[in-house]
Structure prediction request, 203 residues.
Amino acid sequence: MDESGMNEEHHLTEMTIKGKLVQIYDNFLDTKLFKPLQEILLGPDFSWVYNDKITAEKYNGIKQLDNVDVVRHQDDDTFQFTHLFFRGSSQGDWSPQTFNINPVLNAIAPRAWTRIKANLGTRDPEHTMGGWHTDSKIGALSTNITTAIFYMNTNNGYTLLETEEKIESVENRLVVFPCDMLHTGVSQTDTKIRVTLNLNFFI
Prediction:
């Protein structure tokens, strides 16, 4: 992370899960940088693409977690809206909307990006899992990739890790963890939309 690009008053919480470091940055960006970005991604003029699946691959062997009040969607019930800012390899073109998220990109400042996209989920009548997954399918290389999720709005949805830790959706929060850690988004019941930035990169 490039601390010169972060809010000087950010708060960092660290925990180790299965020997892997998970970092949670609250108040990640200065308010004067975060609020314009929030207004754009939550506003009426930003472009979204409909996806009839939330995850391409699900690890259905993960049991229903006993201590978490959440249900699973059926595969044909899942959908979300996305905006792909960048995907590496032969599809390395950047979205013309990327300049809007430059404050986040500059604050993370990795060695290289592998994928960056925004996700928009609509309200559910009950908390439901999008599906267990990891964000990279690059095989052995994925152990060198880091995943980050940046929360654009506060709601009662959350990110659920395979070890039952919940990362609540709090605006201007960034959670960072190894790309090979299984996780799932859990939908919100209290706001019309839940918007996150999903970022994967080499550090």
The first helix runs from residue 31 to 41.
